[in-house]
Amino acid sequence: MQRGASSFSRPPADPAFSGRPHDRDRGKPRRHAGRWQHRHPWSAQRHCHRPRGERRHVTLLSGEAFFEVTPDASRPFVVAAGGVDVTVLGTAFNVALSADTTAVELAHGSVRVAPGQAGGQPGATLTPGETVVVDRGTGAMQKETIALDDIAAWRNGQIFVNDATIGSVVERLRRYHRAWISLPDAALAAQRVTGLYDLRDPDRALRALVQPYGGQVHEISPYLRVVSRL
After folding, report:
1. What's domain 1-6+157-230's architecture?
2. Where does the chain show beta strands of DSSP type E?
3. What is the pTM of this model?
4. I need a labelling partner for 203 at 20 to 30 A (CA). Which of 69, 74, 149, 225 fits?
C-alpha cells in the first residue's frame, strides 16, 4: 500500500474545508430516530419520515456519511445512494457517493447492497471488514477487504482508497482544498492507486497521489492547481 503521509489518531480541529463556507455542525455525529450518523461536511441528504412500523429511509444526494444503526428487525433502515440501496437491520457502515460510483464500507453488523442498474450483478451481502464499489453506469460490483481502522477514515482527517482511479481520488480531494484541482490528462486520471492520504495537507496528499505516475502539481494561483505530466 502506498501511504501519502503519516497517520493521525485524532480528528482535525475543524472538520470543514479551508477557505469555503460551511456548516460546522455537519461534521459532528448526530442521533436520528434510532441511528447515529457522522455526516461528511460536504455531503447532502434527504430524510424520509415514515409512520411507525415502516422502514427508515435516507437518500444520500452527494458526498459520504457514516451510520451506526440501532437493531430493529421490524423497521429496516435503507440508505439510497445514486440508485444503489444499502439495507441494514443493525450495523455501522460508511457510504460514499462519487460522480460514477457508490462505495460501501462495513465496520460491524451486516448490510445488503443492491445496484438499481438493470442487468447489473446480483446484490452483495457484506461482513465486517469488507467494502464494495458499485459502478452505477453498468451495475458492476467490486468487493474487497478493508482494515477496520481505514473505514470512514475521513473522520480522522484521512482518506483511504483501494484500487481507485486517480481521477476519483482527485474528485474527493477537491472537497478538502480551497483551490480547484484540474486534471486534464485522461490517461493519468485512469491510473489506479491504493493508499492512505492525509487531508490536513491536501497539496501534499495530491503530490503523493500523482508523483509515482510522473504527475506534477502546478500551483497556478491560490485558487487553482493543475496536475500534468509535463
Report:
1. 3-Layer(bab) Sandwich (3.55)
2. 2-3, 29-32, 35-39, 44-48, 56-69, 77-81, 84-88, 92-97, 101-108, 111-115, 124-126, 130-135, 141-145, 158-165, 180-182, 192-198, 216-221, 224-228
3. 0.67
4. 149
